[in-house]
Predict the structure.
Amino acid sequence: MTRDMDEFLNRLNRHLDELRWLYMELYDNGSMFAELCSQMEAFYKERGTELKKRDREKLETPEWFQKQDMLGMMLYIDNFAEDLKGVKKKLSYLQKCGVTCLHLMPFLDTPEGRSDGGYAVSDFRKVRPDLGTMEDLEALSRACHKKGINLCMDFVMNHTSEDHEWAKRARQGDGEYMSRYFFYDNGEIPARYEQTVPQVFPTTAPGNFTWVEEAGHYVLTTFYPYQWDLNYKNPRVFNEMMYHFLYLANRGLDIIRIDAVPYIWKELGTSCRNLPQVHTIVRMMRIIGEIVCPSVALLGEVVMEPQKVVPYFGTTEKPECHLLYNVTTMATIWHTVASQNTELLKRQLSAVYSLPDVYTFLNYLRCHDDIGWGLDYDFLKQQGMREIPHKRFLNEYFLGIYGESRSRGELYNDDPVTMDARFCGTTASMCGMEAAAEENSREEMEKALRLDLMLHALMLWQPGIPMLYSGDEVGQLNDPSYKQDPKKAGDSRYLHRGRFPWKLAEEAQKNKDSIPGRLFDGLRHLEEFRSQEAVMAKDARCRVLEIENPHILCLQREKDGQKLTGVFNFSSDSQMVFRKDLEGSTDCFGRGKETAEEIWMEPYGFRIVKQI
Ligand code: GLC
């Protein structure tokens, strides 16, 4: 027996009982379970020697993704560098940005014009031809690994494209394949589902079912009509999807983002979100990964109300996802920008800081999706804010039509029935850079730059992995050109998915005093500080400090008797902060020693000070 096989068998034996128990509980199908086990072995044998070496290394530091120098960046391959080979050529730029984790947005084959930005996969084992091949992906992965960059991709497991082989066969009436989706020959059950299942895209794709003419059936389509929900009650679906997962992991991925995971189990009479069986499936996936490819981490895309998110970490004994998006903090940060009141953010951060250290969040200011206003409305209610009017206020604020707001962007899925709407825009546009450029106002541009940097400073302060959206490092603005493309015009998320602004990136390098130059360098300083400063380590104690001024957020990190205090001003005016304990502390960003117990904060300014 080789050392390799020993390792596999040890891991299999460690987890086999639990895996079998979970599988049988869900499927009660011993032969399908046996098939799963033999396929796990086959994928393990197929896994490359280099990746197995990586598995061993990462097992020595299982929380490798919490390393202090982790800095993520997400990008669309074509927007950034045309294709996978192009990305490989541009790795030096990403290194200049300090990136150690690269999230490639969906790149598997998908029908043009019916792709949902790549989230409608027609072949899980084929790269979209204009972006390259699987070999290109493997070559990119090897190049990334050499440069210390981890690679992340999406695994869209809730649905397939209507052009996927299974969907094509189902459409022709093949029962075996129809059973992999949810088909109904009349509207009765779909109507019953509609009574309890909310809509994800109420205006861009209303309803949860689509009539398929050729099949003479309705099919469940939670997202777009061309994205057919997979039926995980069918063990064939689970097994095959796990084989795809392992196939992709073996191409050299370090992090697999499991897309729309709360939706994968459906039950009539429920909301079809976050059902207990979803957790069983994620737990099984975690175990399967730990047996076959233990260096691969699962990042759960759980964009849900606050209390629904954390359970996806599982428990410390039975973990599920390694990583989750800090979606509530993200939305709460923007709420704080609009309201200039830090109460809710303080509460949210205190809740995050009280979670076990192994729970690792991915912190971000925005991603490729819209910003949904999933806030703690019970708390806001106590402060006199009601959900719908408050969401309307936030949207008006970020549209730039409320008060002194300088934000720019567009609504997404503005639902006239629920009066709910989400928001689209780049960080720079939401911080006011677009408006300042339109107005040609230097003063407003300075303010916008400060806000942008302050929000990034706050993101980088948080424990977990900071994830930048490519282009935000040089202040990329909204790009309304999607409206000219009929394949994109109906989806305002493309507003913040513009082509990478290489011109701004060049300017940032050439002219350090330009806005992109100052933003880029400002971020680099913060990132370097985060990766080198001892008190920024993952095991520092984080807490929220009470301070009387409601515009100010005051946070502290403490490690081995050393303290760092971060002061963030969410007011568009300057503020004074009084804290006796800050007297004599050193400003980490070059403003020398503080002499008094009061700190002067510029509008949207931040300070990070060290107490000795
Ligand atoms: C996820 C993706 C989003 C996509 C949806 C459906 O939420 O982030 O872009 O529309 O899944 O796949």
Summary: The domain at 536-611 is CATH 2.60.40.1180 (Immunoglobulin-like). The chain is about 40% helix and 15% strand. The CA atoms of residues 279 and 312 lie 7 Å apart. The pocket of alpha-D-glucopyranose is lined by residues 116-117, 119, 156, 223, 259-260, 301, 368-369 (CB under 6 Å).
